[in-house]
Amino acid sequence: MGGILLVSTGADNPEAMPESPSYLAPLVLEAALRGAGMRADVFLYFEEPWPTARQRLLAQVREKQYEIIGLSFMSYNRLEAFDLLRDFQQIVPASRIITGGVHASFLYEQMLRRFPNITAVAIGEGEQALVEFCRHPDRLESVPGIAWRRDGGIVVNPHTKCPPSLDTLPAPNYELMRDCRRTILIQTSRGCVGKCGFCAWRSMETTLRWKSPERIVEEWRQIREVFGPDRRIAVIDPLYNISLKHVKSMCRALIEAGLTTNPWDAQIRARPMDGEALELMKQAGCKRILIGVEAGNEQIRRAIGKGISNEDLQRVFALAREVKMPTVAFFMVGLPGETDATVGETIEFVRSIRPYYNPMCGMAEVYPGTRLYEIMKQRGLMSDDYWLYRHPKNCGDFEVHANMPLFTAEHSAIELIRWSIAAQQALAVPQSLGMNDLVMDEEEYDRHDPCRAAQSVGKLEALTQARPSGTWKGRARRVVRRIRAHLELAPSRLPSDSPLLISIQLRAHRPADVYLFIRSRDGGFLRSVLWNGFGHLLSERVTPLAAGLEGGIEHTRTVVLQPAPPLAPGSYTAILVVCGKSQSVSVRSHWFDWRRKHFRVK
Question: Residue 542: pLDDT above 70?
Fold first, then answer.
């Protein structure tokens, strides 16, 4: 028994985030151990479903019998991490396990009490804690920044002072990700001074620190060498533009080094920002900026500690239009103080700032360590035990988030869903691009720019007339009342070479496309499989079973499926997805509804 393993936990739910910082964490931790003269294996998975990757991981652990395992995860994939901890208890009961990440940092006591095979929990940034833990696994009192058990209680060791510059930390080895075909993540700064009541990130990294331009160029060049000059890069700094000096010096360094071909994007605050910084970002290869609007009502924004005014937001979107920098606006419904009137204000405000891409609307979710979580606990709506279990997803006619709870201290989940769908409909622009489509030059910017198209037809409002008539509140109420979808299978048990009879009943509030997927269940874990050669689940190439069904009318369809090749014996799930007409089924927010039925092949 020996060796160290660092694990990036995956997720097996529709809300899994493909660009989560958890994919970068094992690389950063491996670099820290390498800089301290220690070697560690890193387990990463990219193009395979998590259940398959999990089985591969367990086989590797069973074979190598690691002495130390570092497990990083976040709140949305905590249940998958808990399953791994139980597996490790059976496979390698003598291994010393240290967990970390945002979720474990806040609920370290729960983790230590519920999972006896956890030796320690790293709180906050974990590089120093992991290095000292691996050096002295039997002297936990000397390891900074961890929580651990002693004499039946839990002890929290103090942190050591963070290094003043991120350059003192070894650079990640991106060669370990060579098989990855996703966007590559890079972090150029750490720390957050924001006070947003819905975000837990500030409590993880409070001290602002930056990488030097030379260090950023070094990492950027390695990414280019490993993945090529066209691979997209995402800068995942909590507050990328909190220092415009950092932004400008980084962009100038990339320009001087000739590293401007990889398209990249960054999430920024509305303040501080100026035209020079945006122009330099554009010259350095930045293809879009993502900006948190959160709400159009300033009182709601102040109440959650956002600290950004409507004037700040209007200014940054106007600056972006001047330099032709595509923008994405993020906002949410259901924050404290939300009403029909404030949702209407948000809709009108987002229209007024004219983002380039379709705005992204979410429902306020609850994360450990946030002000929203404390409100929910004070109201008796949640406890720390919530995070230990899976919860039903059905909510009326909807299936809502599987793993992350919604903020329902003031409004029901149905009300949040009503607001969310209404806002998405009211702000949808037919000419907009998908979130995965990057605009590469000014000619393409002009061709797709919805605001430019609006100017050519005389008014911006012309682009929003494709939605149903009536007030947005009335449309929203009809959404909740009139989405109905039912799925029936016959027989529920069938021979492998027999057809499957599927009956669908559907009534949607507006024109819809219907998709049908078949997923196999191997060993109790779902693996995405699509019958009849349509492609992978949620691929852009998926063909609808029924396209353009008229809204407001009851539709009944009976379909006989003769899968080719025949389905092997085993358990399967049929999944019905109702999506807006001509909208991409790969975008989860485009789904009206989804239904599932199970069947077995003998």
Answer: no
**409-441 tens-digit pLDDT:** 998 877 887 788 778 777 776 555 666 778 888
Nearest-angstrom CA–CA distance, 121 and 143 = 11
CA distances from 270 to 265, 308, 315, 370 (A): 15, 7, 8, 22
Asked if residues 122 and 145 have their Cβ atoms less than 8 Å apart, the reply is yes
Could you give the CA distance from residue 523 to residue 571 in angstroms, rounded to a whole number? 9
| Tokens 């002693």 sit on residue | 150
Please give the average per-residue pLDDT across 134-143, as a whole number: 93
- pLDDT of residue 480 exceeding 70, the answer is no
| Peptide linkage before 565 cis (omega within 30 of 0) | yes
Mean pLDDT of 185-213: 85
Report which DSSP code applies to 326.
Answer: -
Q: 366, 473, 460: which is closest to 423 by C-alpha?
A: 473
Give 261-306 pLDDT, tens digit per residue: 999 999 999 999 999 999 999 999 999 999 999 999 999 999 999 9
Q: Residue 64: phi, psi to the nearest 5?
A: -95, -15
Q: pTM of the entire structure?
A: 0.79
**Among all chains, which residue has been given the structure tokens 């689940």?**
537
Kindly give the interhelix angle for 25-35 and 127-135, rounded to the nearest 10 degrees. 50
Q: Which residues contact 436 (CB under 8 A, 6 or more apart)?
A: none
Q: How many Å apart are CA 23 and CA 70, to the nearest integer? A: 14
Distance CA 98, CA 146 (A): 9
Q: Is there a contact between 530 and 586 (Cβ–Cβ < 8 Å)?
A: no
User: Does the structure show a pLDDT above 80 at 459?
Assistant: no
> For residue 94, what are the CA distances in angstroms to 1, 66, 69, 85, 133?
9, 9, 11, 13, 16
C-alpha dist (Å) from residue 345 to 351, 464, 596? 10, 16, 37
The two tokens of residue 445 are 């910017």
Mean pLDDT on 124-145: 93
Q: Which amino acid is residue 66, in one-letter code?
A: Y
Residue 482 parent element (H or E): helix 472-482
Alpha carbon 68 to its chain centroid, in Å, reads 29
Residue 312 main-chain phi, psi, to 5 deg: -60, -45
Among 163, 103, 126, 164, which Cα is nearest to 24's? 126
CA 151 to chain centroid: 39
Peptide bond into 51 cis (omega under 30): no
Phi-psi region of 255 (alpha: psi -120 to 50; beta: other; left: phi over 0): alpha
